[in-house]
């Protein structure tokens, strides 16, 4: 799920449809990715030009669309570990200079950085549990300092890097207590010094300070309103409301934390 500056929600589902809704859930439009026999996209984001970046995971590429669904550009499309080739792409985000960061999992578990023109610059990461390594870097966010926040999902932690790929901070441990994480799949930053994390394994959303100090939890496992079943993503709108993609319940829930 992604959200644009007009609070329109972009959601990809298991049929490879990208549907667009307003903030109250009213349907606006839809389109499908070109092919999806091998699998569906698993990550969406909006870049600073207002374009939709689609992590077309099982086709080893990033698709760039206009808000209306016009395919503007493809990046990648070749599986491999060489510069510009991709493993299973999970997310793509840009920084204030227009550079693009693409995360991958599988054999590679890395992040590649590209110039605004799409030229490969460098990469960092690698499969593992050591600081700076990843096991399924599922999603990213870029803050006002161009620091890259990464949900290191299978390591049950958050890692933060500068634009050169240098590790700045790392926090989180596996568990179900407040402050612990279980498969963090997505995060969102606000302007007040907090980060919100959706946990696929704990069926909840947690609010943290930027240093990883817990400030609240919302949700529990279930199918009723206020309950979650493997939440995949979340976004924060212009009014500070959190929209949670409640994957196995096939719905979106909106909360305030």
Question: Could you please describe the fold and organization of this structure?
Answer:
With 257 residues, the chain is mainly beta. It has a domain at 1-134: TolB, C-terminal domain (Neuraminidase). 0% of the residues lie in helices and 47% in strands. The chain is built from no helices and 23 strands. It has strands spanning 2-3, 9-12, 17-21, 27-32, 43-46, 52-56, 61-65, 71-76, 88-94, 100-105, 110-114, 120-125, 137-142, 148-152, 157-161, 167-171, 184-189, 194-199, 204-209, 214-218, 231-236, 242-246, 251-255. The strands form six sheets. It has a four-stranded antiparallel β-sheet with strand order 1-2-3-4, with no helix packed on it. It is globular. The model has no long low-confidence stretch (mean pLDDT 97).
Can you give keywords for this protein?
single chain, 257 residues, mainly beta, Neuraminidase, four-stranded antiparallel sheet, 23 strands, 0% helix, 47% strand
């Amino acid at each position: 799920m992604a959200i644009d500056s007009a609070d329109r929600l972009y959601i990809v589902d298991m049929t490879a449809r990208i549907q667009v809704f307003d903030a109250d859930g009213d349907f606006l439009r839809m389109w499908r990715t070109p092919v999806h026999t091998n699998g569906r996209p698993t990550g969406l984001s909006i870049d600073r030009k207002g374009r939709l970046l689609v992590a077309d995971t099982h086709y080893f590429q990033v698709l760039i669309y206009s808000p209306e669904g016009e395919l503007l550009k493809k990046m990648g499309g070749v599986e491999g570990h060489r510069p510009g080739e991709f493993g299973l792409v999970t997310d793509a985000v840009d920084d204030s200079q227009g550079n693009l960061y693409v995360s991958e999992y599988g054999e590679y578990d890395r992040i590649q950085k590209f110039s605004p023109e799409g030229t490969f610059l460098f990469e960092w990461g690698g499969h593992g549990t050591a600081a700076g390594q990843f096991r399924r870097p599922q999603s990213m966010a870029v803050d006002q300092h161009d620091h890259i926040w990464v949900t290191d999902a299978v390591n049950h932690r958050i890692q933060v890097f500068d634009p050169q790929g240098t590790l700045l901070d790392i926090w989180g441990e596996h568990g179900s207590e407040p402050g612990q994480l279980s498969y963090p799949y997505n995060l969102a930053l606000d302007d007040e010094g907090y980060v919100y994390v959706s946990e696929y394994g704990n069926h909840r959303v947690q609010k943290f300070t930027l240093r990883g100090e817990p400030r609240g939890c919302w949700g529990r496992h279930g199918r009723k309103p206020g309950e979650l079943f493997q939440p995949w993503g979340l976004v924060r709108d212009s009014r500070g409301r959190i929209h949670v993609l409640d994957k196995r319940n096939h719905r979106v829930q909106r909360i305030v934390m």
